[in-house]
Amino acid sequence: MEASTVVLESKVEATASPEGKKAPEVKYGEREITEGKLITFPNPRPGRGYNIDIELPEFTCKCPFSGYPDFAKISLTYVPNEKVVELKALKLYINSFRDRYISHEESVNEILDALVEACDPISMTVCGDFSPRGNVSTVITVPYQKEGA
Length: 149
Description:
Blueprint: E1 4-7, H1 28-34, E2 37-42, E3 52-62, E4 69-79, E5 83-85, H2 87-95, H3 104-119, E6 123-133, E7 136-145
Antiparallel strand pairs: 1-2, 2-5, 3-4, 4-6, 6-7
């Protein structure tokens, strides 16, 4: 099986201390997240309409208005076409949101767009179930259907 890779621009920036001190060494996990790429591999059963259901219960990002952390469970369901997304690469991609200032709505839409670009599914739905903060919880669901499918 031949794997393919979609390179995504990293939104993680290096930080330097105000005193000019050398920043601490980047840990291997942080480096993997920063260099994150969505990797796909050939669908082992092309032509068969089956669902792939994935849950990522530890999604985090930051509110673009307050800077407070937001937590969510990201669920996705898709019917693969020719390619399937590799799970470790998906995990690293999802972890790349942890230090980003991004709204609930934009994060879920961006995840769907990146996955559709990477694996060109027949259909896909991404759902972000955000934990309550300030007595408000949000559920964002974004569907995709391939044209002509």
